[in-house]
Amino acid sequence: MVEIPVLVNKGKNSPKLSAKQLFQTNLSPDLFVLSGTTVNAKDTRGHAVKVFSRGLNYTGARNVMMSLWQEPVEDRSGQLAEFYKESHGGLSRAKSLRKAQLKGLSRNASPRLWAAYQIWGPSF
Predict the structure, then answer these.
(1) Are 34 and 21 spatial neighbours (Cβ–Cβ below 8 Å)?
(2) Residues in contact with 6: Cβ distance below 8 Å, sequence separation at least 6, in sequence order
(3) What is the per-residue DSSP string for 5-29?
(4) 101 lies in a domain?
(5) Torsions phi, psi of 14, nearest 5?
């Protein structure tokens, strides 16, 4: 049984939502974004990413974009702002993410700062 902390409260227990509870909900967004998430380093085959992205697709979310590790907040928020700017400008979700990542790469070559986000789904 996998549990997701819904909110992170410093010094307090965060409310948790089980994967089963999440996947039994009915969502219908075109894009579901999980930011500030991490993947267990022992999960070298990406099972957790597959489970959550596929599970969110089952609930009705067409595309799932999530970060694979905790990147600095300023890099994460800047990349998301760039992604949404490009997306609202008419580019597909995949092309918008690529442009945001290329912009981040031009500022800092470390993949740790620009490559955290991945998108799953038709992305159009």
Answers:
(1) no
(2) 14, 15, 16, 17
(3) ESS--TTSPPPEEEHHHHHTS----
(4) yes
(5) -85, 140
44/24 Cα distance (integer angstroms): 27
**87: helix, coil or strand?**
helix
Tens digits of residue pLDDT in 42-93: 766 767 777 777 778 877 888 888 888 877 777 778 888 999 999 999 999 9
Residue 7 lies in a domain: no
User: Would residue 85 count as lying in a domain?
Assistant: yes
Asked whether residue 9 is assigned to any structural domain, the reply reads no
- For the chain, what's the residue count? 124
Residues 81 and 96 sit within 8 Å (Cβ to Cβ): no
Note down the domain range covering 111: 28-120
